[in-house]
Amino acid sequence: MGIQIHLEVPMNKIAFVLILPFLLIFVSAPVYADDFQDGVDATVRGDYRTDFEKVKLRAEQGNAGAQCLVGNSYESGAEVPRNYKEAVKWWRLSAEQDNAEAQLNLGRMYRQGNGVPQDYEEVVKWFRKPAEQGDAFAQYYLGLMYAEGKGVPRDYVQAHKWFNISEANEDKLGHDNRNNIEKRMTSEQVAEAQRLAREWMRKHRKD
Q: Staple partner for 123: which of 13, 102, 111, 138, CB 3.0–4.6 Å?
């Protein structure tokens, strides 16, 4: 069984876009209480366009979470017509503020060539940022890039390391691909990859 390529948007993140996406933006900001209630009322009515416009207003004010959600909407085409270039624009603004989901999504777009020219070095750059922040999906994708040798020299030790870390964060594909790639490695390489994974997890352990 070969390395599995899995680059769909995670379903939990799609649901986040479609089901009250403004909640996390407005709930922590009492000054926007009226906007929040308007957004709730709009969603109950099924008026997702009103919902989107309120999120976009927050995005234009520089809110990284809102910028990411606007990008999600432009990719999914749920609230507005699908527009990959607009998705990339908003994700980049959010990613530059260290939003891990936006960084992951930007990496996907560079890998797929949607809204930007395909560029594997940019893929690795943007996957690495959320991977280092502990995002299991990004850790899996970064391992995949090392396994394929795209954007970085092929390195099964690094691929195994990132798959292992991804599995530790409960990503099943990390588990499956770690086991698959072990068949291409020597026992010494596996031991080194395991050592590197343990070292990374110890350094990034959350108390």
A: 111
